[in-house]
Amino acid sequence: MRTPFPFSAIVGQEEMKLALLIAATDHEVGGVMVFGDRGTGKSTVVRALPSLLPPMKVVKGCRYGCNPADVGRQCSECHARERAGEVLKAVAAPVPVVDLPLGATEDRVVGALDLERALARGEKAFEPGLLARANRGFLYVDEVNLLEDHLVDLLLDVATTGENVVEREGVSVRHPARFVLVGSGNPEEGELRPQLLDRFGLSVEVRTPEDIPTRVEVVRRRDAYDRDADAFAHEYEKEDAKVRRHLVKAKEHVREVTVADELLVLGATLCKALGTDGLRGELTLLRAARAAAALEGAKAATRVHLRRVAPMALRHRLRRNVLDDTGSTSRVARAVVEVLGPE
Amino acid sequence: MIESPVSADALDAADRSDVTAGPAVLAATALACLAVAPHALGGAHVRAGAHDALAEWLQQLQQLLGTDTPVRRVPAGVTDDRLLGGLDLTATLARGTVVAERGVLADADGGIVVIPMAERASAALVSRLAQALDTSEIQVARDGVGATFDARIGVIAVDESMEDEAPVSAALSDRLAFGVVIPARWRAADALLPDAADVALARARFATVTATHEQIEVLVGAALAFGVPTLRAPVLAVRTARVLAALDGRDAVSDDDVSVAAKLVLAPRATRIPSSEPPPEEPQEQPPPPPEQENDAGEQDQAQQEEKPLEDVVVESMKAVLPADLLAALLARAGRVRAAAGQAGQSQASALRGRQVGSRHGEPRGGKRLHVLETLRAAAPWQRMRGGTAGQANGRVKIRREDFRIRRFIEKTGTTVIFAVDASGSLALNRLAEAKGAIELILAESYARRDEVALIAFRGTTAELLLAPTRALARAKRALQGLPGGGGTPLAHALDAAREAAALARRGGNTPMIVLLTDARANIARDGTPGRPKAAADALVAAAAVRASGTSALFVDTSPRGEPFAREIAVAMGARYLPLPNADAQTVSGAVQGMRGVST
Q1: Spatial CB neighbours of A343, under 8 Å, sequence gap ≥ 6
Q2: Which of A53, B255, B288, B467 is deepest in the core (most CB within 10 A)?
Q3: Closest approach of B380 to chain A, Cα-based (Å)
């Protein structure tokens, strides 16, 4: 496989990078939706992600990559092995970042009867699909707005419940499938149903940079990468390693980051000012602020973090007037200034 | 929205020009570059003046690529199993193990995929091509097969769109380095092309060729100056300059390469012309040095241009290749944007039509299609019991009737709401604003339901389809805002146009619904002549045709007091009649909701 473009070599696009790091720090924040112009490196960022993620511990031989330390969330196969008296061994494995290929059919996504074993040996065995492979990692759907509605529904359902239930052709299986759903797309090619949009935890808008020095830098780095991907990746190894260290620390400490009551009130006020529906917005806002604080190594989340994550946590939750072109981003920005004061 | 870089106007200009200069030379240079690095350059968006010229160009490309390099044609309506690959059923059954079959994209690895009539390519096809171009591979996860194949392809998108048709999808043309216009009389013999050996050498050298920071700056600057927003364009231009240097046997990009790359990659994408200086009096272009030309010629050129900074040279040379009337063409095309955008939406919708969503029990009769894989899956567990010997070399799978699974398709039952809006002088006076308010409300609901909307405006002597069916509501809103008012009321035209749009929507698998907003003061007849009696008679005939088509309709009477003739028309077209004086926007929208309940 070709060396991916390094994460830290991506020029600008700070919000998109931060959103992914927040999701990597705390999977419970929910999925990340990236909408924006063509050629802004939406998929490049996602493909750069695996090299940043520290390896995780999985049960040896488990098809779903269960966590040996989290018995409650293990699959039925692991449970069966334990009941049979086996001591499950832990091995290190990379965090999966699974691509949902375009044109994927449902049988490959959710899993289906293993045709080979059925034909050759007459066994009724379950062949796990992409959802199983993505367990405890990321599932990336490029052009999510072009994906058929029933597949998007299915993905979001599984992402919310953390469990994939398969009832097909005589196989009846349920297995854990907790993953961060990352979607990207270009709104010009079709909009996403609003009902789906607000089921993503964070949403980011990316734009083509407009100032010449940034544009030159983007093209220059791309050219360097074209000519010698390995040498280019080597140049950014240190930077990437730094991001990786921050991420490891953040994952360790995110649960210890404190959130003052005052911040809770501010979060609630902000949501109220924007008229976001439900509690999900508030919860995501605070979770994201905590993860952002953890990524900085801070012990407590502050207004600074709240301000930084407010747009990505809230912009897709506004009750929107579809006919109002003025972006929700500016509406959030206005509310942030009202509630938190000018920067 | 990005315009089609290769317009029909440009082709006309190319056909008029000398075969040994301008577009013909650029077409040859693009060809040589593509032969060196098809995948790195992405390919070309091509428009040809004649079929022969295109065939010759493609054949020449094949020759330079090497005869064993794959060049595959992919029809715009290709199915996923052919395109991406899937299960090789014969081999799977024969061997008893799952055997994957490669699709066209994987087959074309290292070569070229040609898309004839690329403007018709579905959103699905475009996104699959884009994936191969971006990641150099194609992932397959369908019908029991999970596999990744190399797919380092270049794409030749042949644009055969007419003047008023939607151009090739911007998502595709954005990723292709060149916009090439092949003049009708283009002949390989007239072009100075490298031979296959030169190409092979250039291919080996390409990786080591470098461009300077300044040269990159110039290309980025030129892209911005000519209104090319995407960053892919300068990236592709830099690669093109490197290929040109490699073809010339150099390890460093020359300023000339930069200039030619700008002409090939940036000029076809130009959306504006920098207005800093008037163009040179004589916009006669210097033909770009053919790739084979000796080094000294290039240096000479450089010496000549030394007084001018490179960016000026690049801007001048780009201006030279742009058709003289580009600005006029750009302005004219701006008027077409809406229609084109609408059509893009439409093709997206039809790509979804009849999408297969799975399988169910049943027999393949009455036009129902057998889902072979699922049938096998159903039969597989029982093979041992049935005494089948699948898995052995000559084994047969025993399939019984209860195993049959048939394909299930999504039948699209979406609604297309066709608004026919009276923009005549009489309505503009009356209640155009309120009519707009009602439409906006319905639009908002349509959005949540993912309905499509189309917008027809009628005034003067014509009814115009302002917006072909689309889900992009922001576009509908813009079209509505820009709605001009004034002129006569060609009601018959409006009814005809609405009926045609409804028929089209129905063919696309949608349920159409007409919402007509007018004060019914028809005064323009079908033949365009003014006069109330004839106009009214024609309108009644047109209304009857709507009724005959069985399309559900809502007639919103926008006259101040309710117009008797409006009621007459409503009855003739079988529409629900709603006088706006008694109805606010909310009521209208409620009426539409009610109709939807019946129609879907």
Answers
A1: A307, A337
A2: B467
A3: 5
